[in-house]
């Protein structure tokens, strides 16, 4: 689901701004763009995962510190170790020596400032407070989209229920149709006098059993009811709806393969077309 959220928090001269941008994705894909300590990064990721289950989410964190604050510092010893290790690897591979940007990108080279006054803890708290605001905005925006998607999905399910009822009405006359067609074919081949009523009844019963779609219609109705309950209920529903859409498609395919009437086949094609549109919408559901 798409959405945007921005949070701003301040304490003294310290100001943190957090931006969250979400676009559709089948799973949660988190991209964090910020120079923050690994421990704080874990807290940020945990907060986001607790509030968002699906979506490609870009997180941007900007911190403005008081004038004269050192911000991040470079651990020279770690930088030298990283440079030596990278230089040795580059030499063995016949590659150029590592540049400064590559050295700075190594874990532990850029570190949080030594902060006896507790500024680091304060900054972390301010960032997390801004994140809470951004998450609330993002969820509000996604909730608006979710309500629109709910209406769309319910409309699709209503249409599928109508088509299911149409299939049921056509299926009710399948046995009579099979009896009539088989009798006509046999009459053309052997004449009316040569038709054994008992044998004809057996053949009709066998064909009717093969064409019976009662079980598929019962399961289809159950899937549609479950999908409606999930789509209109609380909590995340995207993955559950994904599964049910697959199962609805499976039942429609079986009904189509067993179909002995052109009316049923045409209705199945129409239902599968509507289901495909529903499948596309379900990908956007949290």
Short description:
By secondary structure, the chain is α+β, with helices and mostly antiparallel strands. It is built from 9 helices and 6 strands; from the N terminus they run E-E-E-H-E-E-H-H-E-H-H-H-H-H-H.
Give keywords:
alpha+beta, 286 residues, four-stranded mixed beta sheet, single chain, Ribosomal Protein S5, domain 2
Write the topology of this structure:
Layout lengths: L2 E9 L2 E10 L4 E6 L4 H14 L3 E10 L8 E2 L1 H18 L6 H5 L5 E2 L7 H53 L2 H17 L6 H15 L2 H19 L5 H21 L3 H21 L4
Parallel strand pairs: 3-4
Antiparallel strand pairs: 1-2, 2-4, 5-6
Helix pairs in contact: 1-4, 4-7, 4-9, 5-6, 7-8, 8-9
Describe the fold and architecture.
The structure is a single chain. The protein is of the alpha+beta class and 286 residues long. It folds into three domains: 3-70 and 118-142, Ribosomal Protein S5, domain 2 (2-Layer Sandwich), CATH 3.30.230; 73-104, no CATH class; 146-282, no CATH class. Helix content is 64%, strand content 14%. The strands form two sheets. The chain has a four-stranded mixed β-sheet with strand order 1-2-4-3. A two-stranded antiparallel sheet has the order 5-6. Strand 3 (28-33), helix 1 (38-51) and strand 4 form a beta-alpha-beta unit. Helix 4 (119-171) runs antiparallel to helix 7, helix 5 packs across helix 6 and helix 8 packs antiparallel against helix 9 (262-282).
């Amino acid at each position: 689901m798409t959405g945007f959220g921005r949070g701003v928090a301040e304490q003294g001269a310290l100001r943190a701004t957090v931006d969250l941008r979400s676009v559709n994705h089948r799973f949660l894909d988190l991209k964090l763009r910020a120079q923050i300590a690994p421990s704080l990064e874990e807290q940020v990721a945990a907060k986001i995962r607790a509030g968002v289950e699906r979506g490609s989410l870009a997180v941007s964190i900007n911190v403005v510190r008081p004038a004269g604050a050192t911000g991040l510092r470079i651990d020279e010893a770690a930088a030298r170790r990283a440079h030596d290790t990278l230089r040795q690897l580059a030499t063995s591979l016949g590659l150029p020596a590592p540049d400064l940007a590559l050295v700075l990108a190594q874990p532990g080279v850029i570190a949080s400032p030594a902060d006896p006054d507790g500024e680091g803890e304060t900054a972390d708290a301010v960032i997390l407070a801004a994140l809470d605001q951004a998450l609330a905005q993002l969820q509000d925006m996604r909730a608006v989209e979710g309500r629109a998607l709910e209406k769309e999905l319910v409309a699709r399910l209503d249409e599928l229920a109508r088509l299911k009822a149409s299939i049921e009405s056509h299926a009710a006359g399948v046995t009579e149709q099979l009896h009539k067609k088989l009798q006509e074919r046999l009459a053309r081949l052997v004449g009316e006098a040569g038709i054994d009523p008992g044998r004809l009844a057996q053949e009709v019963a066998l064909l009717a059993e093969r064409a019976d779609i009662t079980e598929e219609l019962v399961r289809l109705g159950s899937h549609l009811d479950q999908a409606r309950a999930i789509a209109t209920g609380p909590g995340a529903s995207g993955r559950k709806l994904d599964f049910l859409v697959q199962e609805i498609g499976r039942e429609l395919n079986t009904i189509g393969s067993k179909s002995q009437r052109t009316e049923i086949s045409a209705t199945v094609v129409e239902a599968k077309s509507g289901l495909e549109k529903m499948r596309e919408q379900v990908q956007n559901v949290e």
